[in-house]
């Protein structure tokens, strides 16, 4: 058979990459697409004939040989994912799927990524685990020791059963012995893991037969009874990792700027990392890309799904399989870590002509290469879904065409057509009567609110307050000691525009759209704080809309409430041209913090106001000193996923301080000394010293009993993977921790390990101060 895949050696990568780009492919007929593939030498003459005559479809007789009780053949569309460049190699990716938009979405995503160099991917050896179960074991540690002593004998027996696999460089490579105490049966359960490199085969039957073959030997060694002998579909020894980096210039989408798309994707990814309900849908979207490739290439998509979801649930909670973050250059970075045990040889290739054609078009030469492609496709599909969710929305994209027709029929004027269309899609009632109702409402309120103008302005036009991390001095700073804190790149943004009456607070990401009722006993402190701010600025009787775009995670001890207050105060100052100084913004936001937290130190609102790396000491006025920093300090922020109730923790520490003033006073004194030493370490850029100070500071925070199991696990992960120092940041009881690193590679390693443990983690840095004055 003639060679025709796009991975053949070519004169240059650029020319090779052109093969994966077929502009306007979707506009051609099926016959035209097939002939075009043949012209580009992507399929053979025989395959062209097969596809034109649909001979690739299974006959009933062929299907009857594959499964039992056959009554017919079920068809699914096979399409092509275009534009992929992975490890500098172009790919056209066959995909079998019934859901509309997946092929278009994944091809669009790949087109964006290829502009910045394409995807990179790597994969582990294709290791499959077989499990041999021993039950009612009286002396499990002894059995474990005996089995490990006889490891070579067990491996040799397993490999003797499949010598051809060994000749190809595969076969059994190791064993593991796991002990599980049993509550409902005598003794313990011992499980032997047989680790098998299946090379380019899927390997299920091979591993099962090896487990069967070594079971008698294991019984003889242990004098215990073997029950189950079967492979595991949690293939976490065959991981694939893919990555892409996309400059914001390539991220403009519809009416959203590249920065808006980047930030929307990052926030959506954070949601999936923290919330298992969101993570389930997030990961389903990833598998929307991976499963179609698995089906097209004849792989067991159900096993791949099982492994992916089991891996996502390995930590404290079910979480996302991808991570999206911003690097120091402001580029969007996406990564995926997912089990991927696949094969390129086996019965399905011989029994299904469509699978054989798919492999020929894809042109991979090993199971490892196929895993890399599938990982990149999953990441591309995830990017496309998050981009849509963060801008126009998945459902909106499906409904917009119909909604346009309905809005036009209802007579929507040109100047409000887009507003009508948007509201119509949001309503879910794509009906003429609904469109007419929306038109009437918009026209009635058009002179009151300039909603569309507000929505069209970018986040850069909004006032903002910085989120923060505390390097040294949490809790003690409330009692008058020094502390060092730094701003982070995550902010709270706010904008104010006029209304005829009432004050309305709008925070779409939090589902807040509330008219402020002055004088009421507010359920949430944010409304009490807002009422105070409006009173102080003598704006109580002015009608307005206050819109907030939050980036700082809620209740994670990262200064979100202070940043929110600063953003709103600055937005009011800008809109009403009050002329507030930075110090007045700081003072007013401090009053807000006292309402929200009670007895606030003032450090959060100060950092949020000035955006500087500060040494701070509470007072009237407070002592504030901007610290000199010549170059950025690499930091990883780990999010526990447990809300940090700062007011509660501050109150508890205060109460215990009042009961034991000498003991707590001594701790606060030692924390004060550490804060002063951290200032010196920062200004001398002595990161090792700063790391030791952070570790000591966390020890004192533990003495105050303000940490949590999740934070402690994150700190252990950070320290075990090279962090110079790691500690709780903020009020505690959950929330966040920070890890001090010495390089970008260290940051990435720590972040990866935190993600592997089921936590979200952000890479950032402490940067030189934006102003020398406070």
UniProtKB/TrEMBL annotation:
<dbReference type="InterPro" id="IPR014721">
    <property type="entry name" value="Ribsml_uS5_D2-typ_fold_subgr"/>
</dbReference>
<dbReference type="InterPro" id="IPR006205">
    <property type="entry name" value="Mev_gal_kin"/>
</dbReference>
<comment type="similarity">
    <text>Belongs to the HMG-CoA reductase family.</text>
</comment>
<comment type="pathway">
    <text>Isoprenoid biosynthesis; isopentenyl diphosphate biosynthesis via mevalonate pathway; isopentenyl diphosphate from (R)-mevalonate: step 1/3.</text>
</comment>
<keyword id="KW-0443">Lipid metabolism</keyword>
<dbReference type="InterPro" id="IPR006204">
    <property type="entry name" value="GHMP_kinase_N_dom"/>
</dbReference>
<dbReference type="InterPro" id="IPR009029">
    <property type="entry name" value="HMG_CoA_Rdtase_sub-bd_dom_sf"/>
</dbReference>
<dbReference type="InterPro" id="IPR023076">
    <property type="entry name" value="HMG_CoA_Rdtase_CS"/>
</dbReference>
<dbReference type="InterPro" id="IPR009023">
    <property type="entry name" value="HMG_CoA_Rdtase_NAD(P)-bd_sf"/>
</dbReference>
<feature type="region of interest" description="Disordered">
    <location>
        <begin position="1"/>
        <end position="20"/>
    </location>
</feature>
<feature type="domain" description="GHMP kinase N-terminal">
    <location>
        <begin position="526"/>
        <end position="611"/>
    </location>
</feature>
<comment type="pathway">
    <text>Metabolic intermediate metabolism; (R)-mevalonate degradation; (S)-3-hydroxy-3-methylglutaryl-CoA from (R)-mevalonate: step 1/1.</text>
</comment>
<dbReference type="Pfam" id="PF08544">
    <property type="entry name" value="GHMP_kinases_C"/>
</dbReference>
<dbReference type="InterPro" id="IPR020568">
    <property type="entry name" value="Ribosomal_Su5_D2-typ_SF"/>
</dbReference>
<feature type="compositionally biased region" description="Polar residues">
    <location>
        <begin position="1"/>
        <end position="19"/>
    </location>
</feature>
<dbReference type="Pfam" id="PF00288">
    <property type="entry name" value="GHMP_kinases_N"/>
</dbReference>
<keyword id="KW-0547">Nucleotide-binding</keyword>
<dbReference type="InterPro" id="IPR004553">
    <property type="entry name" value="HMG_CoA_Rdtase_bac-typ"/>
</dbReference>
<keyword id="KW-0808">Transferase</keyword>
<dbReference type="InterPro" id="IPR036554">
    <property type="entry name" value="GHMP_kinase_C_sf"/>
</dbReference>
<dbReference type="GO" id="GO:0140643">
    <property type="term" value="F:hydroxymethylglutaryl-CoA reductase (NADH) activity"/>
</dbReference>
<keyword id="KW-0444">Lipid biosynthesis</keyword>
<keyword id="KW-0067">ATP-binding</keyword>
<feature type="domain" description="GHMP kinase C-terminal">
    <location>
        <begin position="679"/>
        <end position="759"/>
    </location>
</feature>
<dbReference type="InterPro" id="IPR023074">
    <property type="entry name" value="HMG_CoA_Rdtase_cat_sf"/>
</dbReference>
<keyword id="KW-0520">NAD</keyword>
<keyword id="KW-0560">Oxidoreductase</keyword>
<protein>
    <recommendedName>
        <fullName>3-hydroxy-3-methylglutaryl coenzyme A reductase</fullName>
        <ecNumber>1.1.1.88</ecNumber>
    </recommendedName>
</protein>
<dbReference type="Pfam" id="PF00368">
    <property type="entry name" value="HMG-CoA_red"/>
</dbReference>
<dbReference type="InterPro" id="IPR013750">
    <property type="entry name" value="GHMP_kinase_C_dom"/>
</dbReference>
<dbReference type="InterPro" id="IPR002202">
    <property type="entry name" value="HMG_CoA_Rdtase"/>
</dbReference>
<keyword id="KW-0418">Kinase</keyword>
């Amino acid at each position: 058979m003639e060679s025709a895949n796009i991975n053949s050696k070519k004169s240059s990568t650029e020319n090779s990459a052109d093969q994966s780009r077929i502009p306007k492919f979707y506009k051609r007929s099926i016959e035209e697409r097939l002939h075009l593939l043949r012209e580009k030498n992507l399929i053979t003459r025989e395959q062209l004939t097969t596809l034109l005559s649909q001979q690739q479809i299974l006959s009933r007789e062929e299907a009857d040989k594959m499964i039992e009780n056959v009554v017919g053949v079920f068809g699914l569309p096979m399409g092509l994912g275009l534009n992929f460049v992975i490890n500098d190699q172009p790919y056209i990716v066959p995909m079998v799927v019934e859901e509309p938009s997946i092929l278009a979405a994944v091809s669009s995503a790949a087109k964006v990524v290829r502009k910045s160099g394409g995807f990179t991917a790597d994969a582990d050896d294709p290791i499959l685990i077989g499990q041999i179960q021993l039950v009612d074991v009286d002396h499990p540690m002894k059995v474990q020791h005996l089995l490990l002593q006889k490891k070579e004998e067990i491996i040799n027996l397993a490999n003797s059963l499949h010598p051809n696999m060994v000749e190809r460089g595969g076969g059994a490579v190791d064993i593991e012995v796991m002990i599980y105490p049993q509550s409902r049966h005598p003794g313990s359960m011992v499980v032997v893991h047989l680790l098998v490199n299946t090379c380019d085969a899927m390997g299920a039957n091979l591993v099962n037969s090896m487990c069967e073959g070594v079971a008698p030997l294991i019984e003889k060694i242990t004098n215990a009874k073997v029950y189950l002998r079967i492979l595991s579909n949690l293939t976490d020894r065959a991981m694939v990792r893919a990555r892409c980096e996309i400059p914001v210039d390539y991220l403009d989408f519809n009416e959203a700027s590249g920065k808006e798309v980047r930030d929307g994707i990052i926030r959506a990814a954070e949601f999936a990392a923290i919330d298992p309900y969101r993570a389930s849908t997030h990961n389903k979207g990833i598998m929307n890309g991976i499963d179609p490739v698995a089906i097209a290439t004849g792989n067991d998509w159900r096993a791949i799904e099982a492994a992916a979801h089991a891996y996502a649930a390995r930590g404290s909670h079910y979480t996302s399989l991808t991570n999206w973050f911003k690097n120091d250059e402001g580029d969007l970075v996406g990564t995926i870590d997912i089990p991927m045990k696949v094969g390129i040889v086996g019965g399905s290739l011989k029994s299904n002509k469509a699978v054989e054609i798919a492999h020929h078009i894809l042109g991979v030469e090993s199971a490892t290469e196929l895993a890399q492609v599938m990982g990149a496709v999953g990441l591309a599909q995830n990017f496309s879904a998050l981009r849509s969710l963060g801008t126009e929305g998945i459902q909106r994209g499906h409904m917009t065409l119909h909604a346009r027709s309905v809005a036009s029929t209802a007579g929507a004027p040109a100047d409000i057509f887009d507003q009508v269309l948007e509201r119509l899609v949001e309503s879910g009632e794509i009906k003429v009567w609904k469109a007419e109702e929306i038109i009437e409402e918009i026209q009635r309120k058009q002179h009151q609110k300039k909603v569309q103008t507000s929505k069209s302005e970018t986040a850069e036009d909004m006032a903002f307050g910085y989120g923060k991390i505390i390097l040294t001095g949490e809790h003690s700073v409330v009692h008058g000691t020094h502390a060092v804190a730094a701003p982070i790149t995550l902010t709270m943004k706010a904008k104010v525009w006029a209304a005829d009456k009432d004050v309305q607070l709008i925070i779409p990401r939090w589902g807040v759209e509330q008219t402020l009722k002055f004088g009421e006993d507010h359920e949430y402190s944010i409304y009490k704080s807002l009422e105070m701010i409006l009173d102080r600025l003598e704006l109580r009787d002015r009608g307005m809309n206050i819109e907030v775009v939050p980036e700082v995670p809620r209740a994670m001890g990262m200064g979100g409430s202070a940043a929110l207050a600063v953003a709103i105060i600055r937005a009011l100052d800008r809109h009403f041209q009050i002329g507030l100084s930075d110090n007045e913004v700081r003072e007013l936001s401090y009053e807000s913090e006292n309402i929200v937290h009670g007895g606030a130190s003032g450090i959060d609102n100060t950092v949020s106001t000035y955006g500087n790396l500060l040494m701070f000491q509470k007072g009237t006025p407070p002592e504030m000193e901007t610290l000199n920093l010549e170059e950025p300090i690499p930091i990883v922020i780990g999010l526990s996923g447990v809300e940090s109730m700062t007011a509660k923790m501050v109150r508890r520490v205060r109460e215990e301080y009042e009961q034991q003033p000498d003991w707590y006073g001594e701790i606060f004194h030692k924390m004060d000394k550490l804060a002063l030493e951290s200032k010196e370490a920062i200004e001398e850029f002595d990161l090792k010293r700063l790391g030791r100070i952070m570790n000591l500071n966390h020890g004192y925070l533990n003495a105050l009993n303000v940490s949590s199991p999740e934070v402690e696990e994150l700190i252990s992960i950070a320290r075990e993977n090279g962090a110079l120092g790691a500690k709780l940041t903020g009020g505690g009881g959950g929330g966040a921790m920070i890890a001090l690193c010495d390089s970008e590679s260290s940051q990435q390693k720590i972040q990866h390990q935190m993600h592997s443990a089921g936590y979200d983690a952000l890479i950032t840095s402490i940067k030189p101060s934006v102003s020398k004055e406070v």
